[in-house]
Amino acid sequence: MRSSPAANPGVHTRFLDAAAVRALVQRIGLPACIAGVAGQIEAHFRRWPEFDKSARIACHHPLGVAELMPVADGEHFAFKYVNGHPGNTAAGLPTVMAFGALAEMATGTPRLLAEMSLLTAIRTAAMSALAARLLARPGSRTMALVGNGAQAEFQALAFRDLLGPGLGITTLRLFDVDPAATAKLCRNLAGAGLALQVCASTAEALQGADIVTTVTADKRRATIVTPEMLAPGMHLNAVGGDCPGKTELHPEVLRAASVFVEYEPQSRIEGDLQQMPADFPVTEFWRVLDGSAPGRRDQTEITVFDSVGFALEDHAALVWLQAQAQQLGLGTPIELVAAPADPKDLFGTLHGAAAPALAA
Ligand SMILES: NC(=O)c1ccc[n+]([C@@H]2O[C@H](COP(=O)([O-])OP(=O)(O)OC[C@H]3O[C@@H](n4cnc5c(N)ncnc54)[C@H](O)[C@@H]3O)[C@@H](O)[C@H]2O)c1
């Protein structure tokens, strides 16, 4: 670590850039990372009342959104910065880019600063599969995966591995308006033990699907899934409708289903739910997890997880990342904040080799 002579040795922040997070995921293995983050998310959701929660802060632009996602428990404050710009890929940039930080609540000391684009894909997939484990029909084997961009492979692996012992998706029915995206997914998942069926439309992809994951990016009121595509007992994992004016499900799809959300105040603004009246009934997922609300009621019910991404999932992902990085000795300690050895002498830190110029 490069530190100033007057720096306080107790104030170190572990910094993981994209290369460090990539190295960590490669060392642990992606499926184990998704499972590890899922476990941490589940543990966090089981402690739901202990978190200080709020809907994320979103700043909108005609081409996308920039968001800040804060949340805290007694131990850690976490935030993530994330954007969503569906037009970015045409300019050679990712649709979603993220980084975040974890700080100690007792002292406010920032302890972790990390890239989170990869971690966002991992935690989103983990959250989706966690919800499906409780909401999808047991024995679900076939998933339609509509939208085959950056998030898609992570979703596929989470649904292969996390639906329960001996359970899991074995067949993917794929559709993307960009055939190159689907071809990329097929290359990436060639050795994953999943049967990959490329389809010509969303309607075709949904035929015979037990689970439907929509993970498209388009900055408009899209209706990717319409009511005539539904079949009894389907579970829909709607990931890409996550911003005002950006949806994936036809309103009648929501009406036909029992709808589950992460954090209702945020989902009413951002989810596919934004299309529904304020009194449209939804269930927060944590209640299903703790048994205070029912999940799926029978084999024919249609369920929707209207995912938008909640700060609690990122808090969990950062707590998991911190522990793994510490164990593997990854990341670089940096002097992120000015913290003098004499905490009252911030001014004195300006005395380096030369005294600071004080003349007005
Ligand atoms: N809910 C969450 O927690 C969460 C987390 C991360 C990303 N997201 C959202 O997930 C979506 C996908 O993210 P990404 O990083 O994979 O984006 P991406 O741009 O890499 O991929 C999106 C894909 O959707 C395809 N697509 C667009 N319109 C389509 C349509 N009508 N039918 C079929 N395919 C279509 C595009 O061709 C593209 O390949 C984004 O909308 C993003 O905001 C949500």
Summarize the structure.
This protein is an alpha/beta fold and 360 residues long. The chain has helices spanning 18-28, 30-46, 117-135, 152-161, 179-188, 202-206, 251-255, 264-270, 285-289, 311-328, and strands spanning 13-16, 57-61, 64-72, 76-84, 98-104, 110-115, 142-146, 171-175, 195-198, 211-214, 221-225, 235-238, 247-249, 258-261, 283-284, 303-306, 332-334.
Rg, rounded, reads 22 Å
- Residue stretches low in confidence (pLDDT < 50, at least 5 long) are none
The geometry reads as elongated
Q: How many DSSP-defined strands? A: 17
H/E element sequence:
EHHEEEEEHEHEHEHEEEEHEHEHEHE
> What share of the residues does DSSP label as strand, in percent?
15-25%
Under the CATH scheme, which architecture of the largest domain would be assigned?
3-Layer(aba) Sandwich
Q: Give the class-level CATH name of the largest domain.
A: Alpha Beta
Report, as a whole number of angstroms, the end-to-end distance: 34 Å
| Largest sheet: spatial strand order | 9-8-7-10-12-16-14-15
Largest sheet: 8 strands, parallel
Number of domains: 2
The CATH topology of the largest domain is: Rossmann fold
Distinct bound molecules: nicotinamide-adenine-dinucleotide
Kindly report the name of the CATH homologous superfamily of the largest domain. NAD(P)-binding Rossmann-like Domain
Whole-number average pLDDT? 95
Assign the structural class, choosing from mainly alpha, mainly beta, alpha/beta, alpha+beta, or little secondary structure: alpha/beta
Q: Percent of residues in helical segments?
A: 25-40%
Number of helices: 10
